[in-house]
Amino acid sequence: MTFQHVTVLKQEAVEGLHIKPDGIYVDCTLGGAGHSREIASRLGPGGLLIAFDQDDIALNNAKVQLAEFGDRVRLVRSNFRFLERELSKIPEVLKDGVPQVDGILFDLGVSSPQLDEADRGFSYNHDAELDMRMDRTSPLTAKDIVNDWDEKEIAQILFEYGEEKFARRIASKIAAARAAAPIETTGQLAELVKEGIPAAARRTGGHPAKRSFQALRIAVNDELGAFEEALEQTIRCLAPGGRAAVITFHSLEDRICKQTFNKYVARCTCPSDFPMCVCGTKGTVKLINRKPIEAGGEELGANPRARSAKLRIAEKLET
Ligand SMILES: C[S@@+](CC[C@H](N)C(=O)[O-])C[C@H]1O[C@@H](n2cnc3c(N)ncnc32)[C@H](O)[C@@H]1O
């Protein structure tokens, strides 16, 4: 299989990190290695890029994609929720025993190959065994959730993570179907979701199963929990002057990013309509952009996935 993922906001995110040739950078979401390649190409012999992914297929692809950079790039197979623990194992990163790096990037969500490969069980477009795990060694699958979780819990995740108006109706269809026989495939689930949505409402908003599949994927991979934990660790692991650049695709992810960054600029006294912090009162970080950066017309034309992308950048201050 060829591993093809079109990188979103590549220049904007990497420029936002202010790469120094001899700096140490972390890409928490290696994926198709698009951002990693861009970062690595800006590093000199003294620089280091550490790239995380929890998906073994992404890592195997990246080994080839990034081979030319030699030991300037190090790949880590781990959930990024263990960022601090994993960085603590890398001697070059430690300053007085704690990890300190010059930039950390997140490009959240799934890669195109995860969605497009039928046997990953993420997609309503391909009938396959229901799965949706980014990390194929983790115990919880989408099949477990739809067959074993309480109907109310299922309705709740469809509503919260998928903003699905018909969450309760869909959860009730799922509960009725599984009482007869386990739900095994993406095709079966897509059909049940469709049945749970009134015919008139199915005519708008793309594929009727889109929101429910997104919600299940977020739950299977605990995407919001992992991100929240990792972003707190990110602030700690940045050296003074180091930057965090975060690309989100979901309103709940963007909210976590905005609230976490804001928590650490609490003492900034700039008026809220200023585009950046200029007051000089120091919190732990300053925001580089108050409004998220979004993809421009050209990128949107070439890559519809970029439509919901929002990039926020913050810089760690001297303490
Ligand atoms: C949108 S893709 C990244 C694409 C990449 N920036 C590029 O340009 O090709 C997201 C990647 O992050 C990985 N990922 C998502 N959540 C993760 C987590 N909690 N820990 C580790 N990797 C994660 C996914 O497996 C996927 O490969």
UniProtKB/TrEMBL annotation:
Tagged with keyword S-adenosyl-L-methionine: yes
InterPro entries (alphabetical): RsmH, SAM-dep_MeTrfase_MraW_recog, SAM-dependent_MTases_sf
GO biological process: rRNA base methylation
Subcellular location: Cytoplasm
EC number, as in UniProt: 2.1.1.199
Major place of residence: cytoplasm
Catalytic reaction annotation: cytidine(1402) in 16S rRNA + S-adenosyl-L-methionine = N(4)-methylcytidine(1402) in 16S rRNA + S-adenosyl-L-homocysteine + H(+)
Binding residues for S-adenosyl-L-methionine: A33, G34, H35, D53, F80, D107, Q114
Top-level taxon of origin: Bacteria
Membrane-crossing residue ranges in chain numbering: none
Keywords: Cytoplasm, Methyltransferase, rRNA processing, S-adenosyl-L-methionine, Transferase
Task performed by this protein: Specifically methylates the N4 position of cytidine in position 1402 (C1402) of 16S rRNA.
Family: Belongs to the methyltransferase superfamily. RsmH family.
Name this protein carries in UniProt: Ribosomal RNA small subunit methyltransferase H
Lineage: Bacteria, Bacillati, Bacillota, Bacilli, Bacillales
